[in-house]
Specification:
This protein has three domains: 247 residues, 2-enoyl-CoA Hydratase, Chain A, domain 1 (Alpha-Beta Complex), CATH 3.90.226; 178 residues, NAD(P)-binding Rossmann-like Domain (Rossmann fold, 3-Layer(aba) Sandwich); 154 residues, N-(1-d-carboxylethyl)-l-norvaline Dehydrogenase, domain 2 (Orthogonal Bundle). Helices cover 51% and strands 10% of the residues. The protein is built from 30 helices and 17 strands. The strands form four sheets. An eight-stranded mixed β-sheet has the order 10-9-8-11-12-13-14-15, sandwiched between helices. A four-stranded parallel β-sheet has the order 1-2-4-7, sandwiched between helices. Strands 3-5-6 form a three-stranded mixed β-sheet. It holds the Pfam family 3HCDH_N.
Length: 696
């Protein structure tokens, strides 16, 4: 906040001083500004600091001091100019940037709208369509594009020329050699009113479709409209008031939590605080060219890692390489990659049918089928053929790492690198450590994760690790409901309306029942007391309905992969009930959406509590990130634990307790949840790590 006051003081002082003719605003160390201090949001929300009065920055400083100044202001932009940073730059009379500068208004991803005049200045500089696109997607533009859009006035070839060019530009404005432009008064880029209204209407329709649960993108559109219809001064007022109101919203609180939670996943006590440096990884080997292996290979070569892809036969190898090529081709088709980059990237991939070229690999990632014996043999081979420093990683999604490494003496370099399918697209990387995994191996994998642009979450070793373990009860609860009378499609609708990308049954179809049954087997083995055994999936599977790949599962699929409900499903449900001896419960046939969401997600919360209290997850915020990035839990609800805390541990405990009395131990609240509820404490309070022997 003090930064804003000093900006005002410095500007006013510069305007008073006779020896200053013009002002250049720039940033330090190659960065203009990342915007308003997001950590202050929480302090404003809990009232430990006072929010600046509405309009203090946008009207009193940027509009009335900077834009209205009698001396020219020019922004010299290098590196990032985001949010409030870009808004300061847009208040200036011109902007000069470097080619690599990134300019954007990403406030919407924090649940707010630009609050320092951005909703008014940006449409006037780049037109309404582009301004809305930049704000609604939160995506920045680079120097050259900013120049072609009119967001900056000049791009210098190198950062060394930035300040001198900006100074010259400011003096040229003073000497009337260049125009003196007040962004808020510019109108020529604004589309005529009728057209503007059409653009805004279209944007509203799209926004409602894309984010039906979110209000703030619509508020942003309203505020832009106010400026177009009633002038930028009115727009600035409306923006200031809306900004203050949105700052207090649950959506903003949740998204700010996600922002910091995402950045805190790389801070692992006892690992990242030891002063270790990541070792250089020059060569990676991947075992298995299936869906996962080829996705991982794609992610790695896209970030410049040379990769050897090993398969058991030439046929499998060629199809693995083919999959990687197809992944890259899809980028070429979307215009995200040119042919030259394609050739360069694919040249980093080499195929292998034996371990001959493994003598100098720095990390191996095993991605073969989930077969314990096979994995054990592979790891003992790896120990023979790879150098002693080589990290031995497995992409298993459920199997205990201690079992996988049982036949080796390399337990310190065995680690889990659990990617999510499709691995080159999904942002999460679950890094699994055992009691023996060395901190250096974790540091190296964290570094690879950062380079391939994944968000890593470091977790302990157990069946299902963190993500799969907490989401297993999700499908289980849904099956329990269906067995007792709730409609399959109502469950999927309720869960999708809540904000998940798809409901549990549509997800099952997508993943395929083979995987669901295999994972289920692991759970029955390891957590028998809380695994719900429905016959529905095995019955469907028996009838060759295995999900989307077979065009039939809980839904039926047309040629374009469009899913439609299938009335036939009732037949299977009836049969499943008969086999299990389960009766329809009339209460469960008419549940509200809210009740469905609670019954499906509270067991997820319960399992997340176990994962946390057993020390599998380091902190609750990691589970929030795991749920958002691994399963698509809506980020604007803050992740599974944050959402649970917004409802309260007491409430969740009482609901689960009630459900367990009617429907069994599947719902039984775990001791950590019971203990937090008894204290009335949040579930995300820090927990003392479980004793080492409790961890696998
Ligand atoms: C009124 C206005 O309209 C309101 C606003 O301006 S809201 C703010 C708008 N700005 C943003 O949303 C930008 C948010 N920041 C980012 O997107 C990214 O941090 C970035 C692109 C600036 C840099 O990314 P990257 O180089 O990967 O570094 P990253 O790890 O994210 O950030 C470095 C550190 O700066 C912190 N940080 C970055 N931007 C911050 C901000 N605006 N406020 C507070 N802290 C910030 C991060 O939390 C992180 O802290 P840590 O080292 O303690 O974990």
């Amino acid at each position: 906040m003090s930064m804003l006051y000093s900006l005002k003081d410095n500007c006013e002082q510069a305007l008073r001083r006779d020896d200053i003719k013009a002002i250049v605003i720039t940033g330090e160390r190659g960065k203009f500004s990342g915007g308003f201090d997001i950590s202050a949001f929480g302090k404003i929300q809990d009232k430990s600091i006072e929010a600046p009065r509405p309009g203090f920055v946008s009207l009193e400083i940027l509009s009335d001091v900077v834009a209205a100044a009698k001396k020219p202001f020019v922004a010299a932009v290098d590196g990032l100019a985001l949010g409030g940073g870009l808004e300061v730059a847009m208040a200036c009379h011109a902007r000069v940037s470097t080619p690599y500068a990134q300019l954007g208004l990403p406030e919407l991803q924090l649940g707010i709208i630009p609050g320092f005049g951005g909703t008014q200045a940006l449409p006037r500089l780049v037109g309404i369509t582009k301004a809305l696109e930049m704000m609604l997607t939160s995506k920045p533009v680079k120097g050259e594009e900013a120049l072609s859009l009119g967001l900056v006035d000049a791009v210098v070839a190198s950062p060394s020329e930035l300040i001198s060019t900006a100074r010259r530009w400011a003096l040229d404005i003073l000497d009337s050699k260049r125009p003196w432009i007040i962004s808020y008064h510019k109108t020529e880029k604004l589309e005529p009113l009728g057209e503007a209204r059409e653009i805004l209407k279209f944007a509203r329709v799209q926004t409602r479709k894309r984010a039906p649960n979110l209000k703030h993108p619509l508020v942003c559109i309203d505020v832009v409209e106010e400026g177009i219809v009633s002038g930028s001064r009115a727009g600035l007022w409306k923006e200031a008031e809306a900004f203050q109101a949105l700052l207090q919203s649950d959506t903003c609180k949740s998204l700010v939590h996600i922002f910091f939670a995402q950045r805190s996943t790389t801070k692992v006590p006892g690992v990242t605080d030891l002063g270790l440096k990541p070792r250089s990884i020059k060569k990676v080997a991947i075992l298995g060219g299936g869906l996962m292996g080829s996705g991982i290979a794609t992610a790695l070569i896209l970030s410049g890692y040379p990769v050897i892809l090993k398969e058991v036969s030439d046929k499998f190898l060629q199809s693995g390489i083919g999959r990687v090529k197809a992944n890259l081709q899809s980028r070429v088709k979307k215009g995200q990659m040119n042919q030259e980059k394609f050739e360069k990237t694919i040249s980093l991939l080499k195929g292998a049918l034996d371990y001959g070229s493994f003598g100098d690999v720095d990390i191996v990632i095993e991605a073969v089928i989930e077969d314990i014996n096979l994995k054990q043999n592979i790891f003992s081979d790896l120990e023979k053929f790879c150098p002693p420093h080589c990290i031995l990683a497995t992409n298993t999604s459920t199997i205990d790492l201690n079992l996988i490494g049982e036949k080796t003496k390399s337990q310190d370099r065995i680690i889990g690198a659990h990617f999510f399918s499709p691995a080159h697209v999904m942002p999460l990387l679950e890094i699994v450590r055992t009691q023996k995994t060395s901190p250096q191996a974790i540091i190296d994998l964290l570094d690879i994760g950062k380079k391939i642009k994944k968000t890593p979450v470091v977790v302990g070793n157990c069946t299902g690790f963190a993500v799969n373990r907490i989401f297993f009860p999700y499908t289980q609860a849904a099956l329990l409901l269906v067995d007792r009378g709730t409609d399959v499609y109502h469950i999927d609708r309720a869960v999708t309306n809540f904000g998940m990308p798809m409901g549990p049954f549509r997800l099952c179809d997508l993943v395929g029942f083979g995987v669901a049954i295999a994972t289920g087997g692991q759970y029955i083995l390891n957590f028998p007391e809380r695994t719900y055994k429905s016959m529905l999936i095995p019955l469907l599977q028996e009838d060759k309905r295995s999900g989307e790949a077979t065009k039939r599962g809980f839904y039926i699929y047309d040629e374009k992969r469009k899913a439609s409900p299938d009335p036939e499903i009732k037949k299977y449900i009836q049969k499943a009930r008969e086999i299990s001896g389960v009766a329809v419960d009339p209460k469960l046939t008419k549940l509200s959406d809210k009740e469905i969401v609670e019954i499906v997600f509270f067991p997820v919360v319960n399992e997340a509590c176990r994962v946390l209290s057993e020390g599998i997850a380091i902190k609750a915020a990691d589970l929030d990130i795991a749920s958002v990035m691994g399963m698509g839990f809506p980020p604007y609800r803050g992740g599974v634990m944050f959402w649970a805390d917004s409802l309260g541990s007491k409430y969740i405990y009482s609901k689960l307790d009630e459900l367990s009395k009617s429907y069994g131990d599947f719902f039984k609240p775990c001791s950590y949840l019971a203990q937090q509820a008894a204290k009335g404490a949040p579930l995300s309070s820090s927990v003392a790590p479980a004793p080492a022997k409790a961890r696998l």
